[in-house]
Every structure is written in structure tokens, then in C-alpha cells.
Amino acid sequence: MGRFRDPQHPLFRALNSSIAFDYRLAPYDLEQSIAHARMLARSGIIGQDDFERIEHGLAQVRQEIDEDCFVVNDEDEDVHMAIERRLTEIVGPVGGKLHTARSRNDQVATDVAMLVRAHSLEARGLLLGLMGTLVELAERHLDWPLPGYTHLQRAQPVYLSHHLLAWFWKLRRDLQRFNFCMTATDDLPLGAGALAGVNFDTSRMYVAQELGFGGIAENSLDAVSNRDFVLDYLHAAATCAGHLSQLGAEIVLWSTEEFGFCEVADAFSSGSSLMPQKRNPDAAELLRAKAPRIVGRLVGLHGVMHGLPLTYNKDLQEDKEPLFDAIDTLELCLRVAREMLTGIAFDRERMAAAASDELIAATDVADLLVREGVPFREAHGIVGELVRTAVEGGRRLSELDDDELRRLAPQLPPDGFRMLMRQGAWLESKVSEGGTSLARVRDQLSQARHVLDEAAG
Ligand code: ARG
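Above: the input record for the complex with arginine. Below: its predicted structure, written as C-alpha cells.
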């Protein structure tokens, strides 16, 4: 076709070419091509000898790519054309039979679906590793109290194990989102042709099985225009990166002099070139900063996709760079988060000191009143008065004397109140399901272990 046309303008070529980035589809493209050629031979569309020569040629291309000596030409618009061009150089004109009953439109959709599936699996594995690290940390810090926060104000004390497991369950939902990505990539686009199907009685289910797809896309027009699975991956990645960002932000906060709850290992922090005392939690800061980049990739692709008429449009070529960047960013962040958490050191004393702030027992005092029949709203007001009186007098809650207690909170049993203050029992009082009492955290840990075992087995 090119022979009868004027040569392409170099600027058009620069805009149109995707080889610089879609090169990383090559392993999937080769696998797909072998399955496709095998199907063509089995269906009698090409000869068995054609298939064998094509297969042999593709094996050589594979080797060149693996050994990093595959040479891309100026003429190669994308990875699909580069591979076919090289195949034909190796095996001669029979290489041209590979593209029988196939279009680059169904070919590229198939490559991208295969890549998304492979990296959804990778994300799953990395998530499970990180979740395992959180479970180990929770087990090692089972009964270390620290304040829990709302509005970043000390609210109620919790165990560090409970706090760490909160991240576990967020990541569990990320895992489920990546599971969904596997479903979203389960219908084989290949065989849809350019858009309408192909002029041969191909066996798409055979190709699907060869490539590990569960089924085939039912509608050829949908097959070549579908990039939902890329959006699904980007969405899962954006939410997951958002969690890692929150986790990173927390580590940044906790490792300040002001909090002093944790210290990140030297290997994941930097010193200041000027101030010798400084140790900066750069890794945690970058986890915090990477999330919006992935969100941007998601939003960007929605922009590309919205309003596109059926079926294939060249716009769809813009699916790749955002996807690849999101994959690289997310996988790196997941690896970093795991290593960083593995080497983190928590400061038991600092956390305990912050958690022993008696004011965070206020809810428990209110509940003591509730047990005496005082409606919770009223109890809340009474304890508010107790707190105000203590704070204004520069005293702890437990330093209120019996007269004051009788006057401000006549329904409060003084012995019960004294015991509550003495024991610091307001962690173990959180006995409800999903609460922070040790028994409940132990239940939670076994549920978490169960999730990991199920995913592994
Ligand atoms: N590089 C293209 C892409 O990524 C391949 C499909 C081109 N198809 C076409 N009919 N021009 O979308």
C-alpha cells in the first residue's frame, strides 16, 4: 500500500508512532501470534508447514528481544508491525500469512488485555506480601497502646496491632479490586478482526484457551473498542496508591520529633546536607506524593475514551503510556512500602505516654454513667463538665475529689470511676466485634491470616 502513497511527513510519523512505548507489549504479542497461527493451521486456513516456519521465526524474534538485540526500523510504526516485519525478514513471504484473519485492532486489544491481566496478578502478589508484613507487625506489637485519632485530635486509645490491621483491610479491598481486573480481562478480543469479524471460520475459543482467557468477547464491535479493563486497572491502582499515600503520610507524621512514634530505617531515609541531626522520611513522603500521579492517569484515559464513536479510533493508542506509568509507579510503591515497614521501629514509651492522657478515657466515663441509667447524650454533657473542671484546674481527671464528683456527676459510682482511672482499662473495654480489645484483635488477626492463607492456597 505504501508504494502508491507519498511518504509520511516526519512530524506525522513522530505523532503517530507508538513503537517507543508499546515495545513492552512484545512478549504478549509474540505469545498471541503463536496461538493465532496455531489456530489458523488447525482450522486449515494456513498449512501446517506455514505454521511451523512462522513459529520458528517468532521464536527467533523472541530471542532477539530477550537478548536486547532486536533492531527497530524507522518504518516500524508500532510493535506489531515491527515484529511482523522482522518475522518476514527471517522466514520470507510466509511471514505475511500470520496476519490472516486478524487486524491490529483486535491484536492490540488482546495484547493490552494480556498485559493488564499479568500486572493485576503482579499487584495481587505484591499486595499479599505487604499485607503479610502488616500481620507480622501487628503480631509483634499486639498490646502496645497508642492514641487513636479523629480530626487528628486524640480520641480513644487503641492497640498498635489494631491500628496496623486497619491498613491490612484497606489493602484487602485493593486486592479484591485487582481480582475484578482479572474478570474484566477474561474475554478474548482476538478474532473480532478490524471491527466486524473475519472472513474465515476461525476458532476463537481455541485461541482463548491457549492464551488463558476464560471466554471470548461476544461482539466484535465491542471487542475492538473496549478498554474498560485498562480503566479498571487504573482505578484499582489509583485507590491502592491512595492507601499507600495515606500510610506514607502517617509515617511522615509519626516520625516527627513532635510525635516520635516511629523511626524509618536509614536505608529508607535521607540526611540533610546542612543539618547533621536530620533524618528525613523521603520514602514515606514519596509514597504520599505518587498517588495523584496515578489518579491523573485514570482521569486522563477517561478523557481519551469519553465520546469516542464505535469502534476503533486511533485515540485508543493513548491508552498505553498512562497504563505503563501507573503499573511502574504502583509496583514500585508496593515494594517500597513493604520494605520500609519491615525495617520500621516503633517507640513503645512515646506511644504509651500519649495514650495515657486520661482525657481520652472520657467516653468510658460517660459509658459508666450510661450503665447507671443515664441517657448517653446527658452523660456526654456531664463528663464534659468533669473534663472542663479538671482541665481548668490544671489537674488530671482522676484528681477530681469526691465532693466534686458528687456535685457534678451524682449518678457516677465513685468506686467504679476510681477503678476505671486506675486500671487504664479503656482499651480492654472495647469488646465489640471489630473493636480494639485484645480478644477482638486476636480474632481479627486470625481472620487476616485466613485471608492470606486463602489467597495463597
Ligand atoms: N498502535 C496501534 C494502537 O496502539 C495499533 C492499532 C492500529 N490499528 C490501526 N487500524 N491503525 O492502537
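Notes for the reader.
Residues 18, 22, 78, 104-105, 108, 312, 316-317 surround arginine (CB under 6 Å).
The mean pLDDT is 95.
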